[in-house]
Amino acid sequence: MSRAALRATALLAPLALAALTGCGGAPAADPAPAAPHITPASAAPAEAPAAGPMPASEPVRVRIPSAGVDASPVLGLGLAADGTVEVPSAADADRIGWYTKGVTPGQTGPAVLIGHFDTARGPAVLKDVSHVRTGEEITVDRADGTTAVFRVRELEQVGKKEFPTAKVYGDTARPELRVITCGGELADGHRPDNIILYADLVG
Q1: Are 171 and 4 in contact (CB under 8 A)?
Q2: Which end of the chain is more exposed for a tag (fewer CB within 10 A), N or C?
Q3: What is the per-residue pLDDT for 188?
Q4: Prior bond to 55 cis, omega within 30?
Q5: pLDDT at 186
Q6: The pairing of beta strand 137-142 with beta strand 59-64
Q7: Are 26 and 122 a contacting pair, CB within 8 Å?
Q8: Against a cut of 0.85, is the pTM above it?
């Protein structure tokens, strides 16, 4: 087994509860943005030629034009005490976080970015995630001055209790990206689903 595979296997154990659980929508008395739902394309676009892996360098800016996202600086996120992945605080609802126990965007493996759809304070950085379609680009500027460009290959909306931990965090043979937020109708102030964008490095 490769070193990368061993690292990924070791990381998956504490990620058994790694759904994005920190999203809370506006209180029932306040207007909340429309529930985020994504509609996967009936057929994904032809797979683009993969770009070669990049050396490690932390992300500093994330742009998702189709969702109106241009977020910097990028927060570093680890694991919470209960084993779930940390999420940005409500005070940082307009920022994207990067899961620091994984690879940096552009390295071989799945780099993971996390942001809120909304919080009790109102709409957040990924409020327009439902506008994203397969084939569109996500750009990550890195601390070393380089830029990693990813193309969205798949959109997935799944209940948090069925979160696909291995699919999201498991080892991959090429540089990939995940962007995770919350979705579904508000229930008791929380959204029951996760929305996940899967993207491949193309430049």
Answers
A1: yes
A2: N
A3: 83
A4: no
A5: 87
A6: antiparallel
A7: yes
A8: no
Below-70 pLDDT ranges, the chain = 1-49
Q: Are the C-beta atoms of 98 and 112 separated by less than 8 Å?
A: yes
Q: Which residues contact 31 (CB under 8 A, 6 or more apart)?
A: none
Distance CA 181, CA 37 (A): 11
Contact 103, 110 (CB under 8 A): yes
How confident is the model over 12-50, as pLDDT tens digits?
Answer: 434 443 455 556 554 433 445 566 666 655 345 555 567
Q: State residue 14's pLDDT score.
A: 45
Beta bridge partners of 149: 139
User: How far apart are the C-alpha atoms of 171 and 9, rounded to whole Å?
Assistant: 8
Where b means 16+ CB within 10 Å and e means fewer, 71-91 reads beebbebebeeeebbbbbeee
Torsion of CA 105, 127, 19, 45, to 10 degrees: -60
Helix ranges, the chain (H): 3-12, 165-169
Question: Which residues, in sequence order, are bridge partners of residue 62?
Answer: 71, 140
Which region, left, alpha or beta, applies to residue 29 given φ > 0 means left and ψ of -120 to 50 means alpha? alpha
